[in-house]
Write a structure and sequence with these properties.
The protein is α/β, with parallel strands linked by helices. The protein has 3 domains: 127 residues, Tumour Suppressor Smad4 (Sandwich); 162 residues, P-loop containing nucleotide triphosphate hydrolases (Rossmann fold, 3-Layer(aba) Sandwich), CATH 3.40.50; 49 residues. Helix content is 30%, strand content 21%. The strands form 5 sheets. The protein has a 7-stranded antiparallel sheet, covered by helices on one side. Strand 8 and strand 9 form a beta hairpin. 32% of the residues are buried.
Length: 457
């Protein structure tokens, strides 16, 4: 009970608004052991990081010092020291035989910015300043290599999506999955169904792949003789999913006539097959997915507002792969295991590893899987080289398909142009002002099509 004068907080303890962002160090890839998996260390309270060679991958915190060892024969016993000083992080090469490389440039000392990629021998690490301080301070996936699953993640925002999906899995509330193509919406839908405990099957339906004249027959089923060619009774996708989960992929492509009929199915929990006279009751649970902006489609009259209201029980937004880039090494492990389980000796050259880790993956996980599938087909030695990767990944082709910028991206582009012009085209200076790695600035310049040469002093 509160006393007179006590004020209750409107912010719940442990809510996302209270989670701090802390600097983190990620071990993203060991070129000679890519199937081992990545690791992550939170740097809160750490003043010094020492990285060198050891007989196995291990880390230890003693006071304010984090020591990391990697079994890389090209890394010196004492290779690099990273020290915090006045809020800055300075990486210094300790005289190693193979010099430290930051964002592709050999150096002996450099102030690190968020997103910088460090190469030590054949091992790649990334320094980040903007990671939410959630989960264990140290997370090393080499300890549980077989426990890594499609929804395992090093990304706190994506972990929150997975956690919410588990929370709603056992209910019957409709779930709407929103995200770009290739972000894993069907994988998440299958996870929701697997955790639901429902007795029936998961029935996936690609709403954009059904011929318009067959949509209602495919969804609602039909009776024999109800139309020309209906030689047998057919239950349809909805009745097949009775007691299970109906997964409607690309729900935004559902034709208007089918939208009206499906709305009634949701409202009444019953379906009338084409040619039928009596409604059949259903134990229906719907998970829908789309890469469209359904609210915009509603405003344009292309999607029913009342159907969206029925589908939008809980919305889960899946981040694009570029927004959870710390998961690329983890996904790489999963994809390689699936593509080539008989080749545990696969390796990457530093050039191919850097290309994979620095690419933006505009087509998301699907693009990453296709790139690795092609590389594994081309390599005869088990060593993936740059020549085995698509031109778009290694930077010799277009890095991203042209598209209209969102209002937020347009604003960001304008601010970036002003900064570049202010600093006479000096991208390193812009990186220091924004506290980002120079490579990140280059990515933005490429994405927005900015002509830096015209702004150089």
């Amino acid at each position: 009970m509160t006393e007179k004068g006590d004020t209750l907080s409107l912010v719940q303890e442990g809510s996302p608004g209270q989670v701090r962002r802390e600097p983190h160090l990620f071990l993203e890839l060991e070129c000679d052991r890519p199937l081992v998996g990545p690791a992550r260390w939170r740097l809160a309270g750490i003043e010094q990081i020492r990285i060198g060679r050891g007989g196995a991958r291990r880390s230890q915190v003693a006071g304010k010092v984090l020591s990391i060892q990697v079994p890389d024969g090209r890394v010196s016993v004492e290779h690099v020291e990273i020290r915090r000083a006045d809020g800055r992080w300075i990486a210094r090469d300790l005289g190693a035989k193979n010099r430290m490389i930051v964002d592709g440039q050999p150096t002996t000392e450099m102030e690190l910015s968020g997103g910088d990629l460090l190469q030590l021998g054949h091992t790649f690490l990334r320094f980040r300043t903007d990671v939410l301080a959630v989960g264990p301070a140290t997370l090393d996936f080499q300890a549980v290599p077989e426990g890594v699953g499609p929804l395992s993640t090093l990304s706190p925002p994506f972990a929150a999506v997975v956690e919410r999906s588990a929370a709603v899995a056992r209910g019957r509330v409709p779930v709407l999955l929103v995200g770009e193509s290739g972000t894993g919406k069907e994988v998440l839908a299958r996870s929701i169904h697997a955790q639901s405990g429902r007795r029936g099957p998961l029935v996936p339906v690609n709403c954009g792949a059904i011929p318009p004249n067959l949509v209602e027959s495919e969804l609602f089923g039909h009776k024999k003789g109800s139309f020309s060619g209906a030689l047998h009774d057919r239950p349809g996708f909805i009745r097949t999913s009775d007691g299970g989960t109906l997964f409607l992929d690309e729900i935004g492509d559902l034709p208007a006539t089918a939208q009206a009929a499906f709305l009634r199915v949701l409202q009444e929990a019953e379906v009338v097959p084409i040619g039928g006279s009596r409604p059949e009751p259903l134990d229906l649970r719907v998970v829908a997915a789309t890469h469209h902006d359904l609210k915009r489609q509603v405003r344009e009259g292309r999607f029913r507002h009342d159907l969206l209201a029925r589908l939008d029980g809980v919305t889960l937004r899946l981040p694009a792969l570029r927004e959870r880039s710390e998961d690329i090494p983890l996904l790489l492990v999963l994809i390689l295991r699936k593509l080539a389980p008989e080749r545990p000796d696969v390796k990457f050259t530093p050039a191919s590893a850097q290309a994979i880790l620095q690419h933006r993956w505009p087509l998301n996980i699907r693009e990453l899987e296709q790139a690795l599938a092609g590389a594994m087909a081309l390599t005869t030695t088990g060593i993936v080289e740059s020549a085995h990767l698509p031109e778009t990944v290694v930077g010799t082709g277009e890095t991203e398909p042209s598209r209209e910028l969102t209002p937020e991206e347009s604003k960001h582009r304008d601010e970036l142009v002003l900064l570049i012009r202010e600093h006479g085209g000096n991208l390193s200076a812009v990186a220091r002002v924004l506290q980002k790695g120079r490579t990140q600035i280059l990515r933005w310049v490429s994405r927005y099509g900015i002509d830096v040469e015209s702004m150089r002093s």
